[in-house]
Amino acid sequence: MYTEIVRNRKSVRTYKEQPIPEETLNRVRDYLEHDTGLFNVPVAFFVLNARETRVSSPVILGADTYVAGKYKKQKNAEISFGYAFEKFILYATSLGLGTVWLAATIDRKAFEKAVQLKEDEVMPAVTPIGYAAEKHSIRESMMRKGMKSDSRIPFEELFFHDNFQNPLNENDAGIWKMPLEMVRLAPSATNKQPWRVAAEKDQVHFYERKTKGYAKEATGDIQKVDLGIALCHFEIAAEESGLKGRFIQSDPGIMTAEDTEYIATYRLEG
């Protein structure tokens, strides 16, 4: 079950010098070919040989293969990218491959050249893929500690009942408990956890709590990418919980702080 993968997955920055079998790479390529985003925004993916394309990251050791994605600049593009790329990240994990979201700590020029990035396109993030080394490098251990990678904001500070004046206790979340917990466990840029959620009986509204400096020309609004990751996790857990619904965009008009923007709504069907 993918919810177990979400619970157990850890970012990997140190890899064994062990090639990925061609059969596994073919499964990766096939998955990426059919990996669709949200709100009719397509995402293009690329499997890159690091030695041939000379792509790299100063925080990655031992990885020879990377996956990058790009999209055309348009409404909902970052959300669609985050949703589709996280689906792939979880699929790669199910194949036994290590991954880590990288946006700032890459040779961006080399990656953009490798994916033939056009002026109207954005490449927000990439991931290495490979087999995790048995021990973290000292650098990786320090990065995890510095970013508090394993810590999460408490449930009732992220999720609310009907509006943002009523914190939602985990024990009162009902059918939304598992999907919201999967959102809480989602990775985000420097672990800012920018999602805020207002849950109703038959629908759940997602918002972006903005942090200054996270929207840039080269990456787009990276926290909207984070919201795409959150939507991916929520949908996976909802499906595994037997819920049937879909994402729509219909702003409910809930009063929010100035730095908070409506993103999408998951609405039950049937």
What does this structure look like?
It is a single chain. The strands form 3 sheets. This protein has a 5-stranded mixed beta sheet with strand order 5-6-7-11-10. The model has no long low-confidence stretch (mean pLDDT about 95). The protein has 9 helices and 11 strands. The chain is α+β, with helices and mostly antiparallel strands and about 270 residues long.
Q: What brief labels describe this structure?
A:
11 strands, 4-stranded antiparallel sheet, globular, alpha+beta, 270 residues, 5-stranded mixed sheet, 9 helices
Give the helix tally: 9
Global mean pLDDT? 94
Q: Which oligomerization state do the chains in this entry correspond to?
A: single chain
Uncertain spans: none
DSSP summary, beta strand count? 11
Query: CA-to-CA gap between the ends?
Result: 24 Å
Helix percentage range: 25-40%
Strand proportion, as a percent range, falls in 15-25%
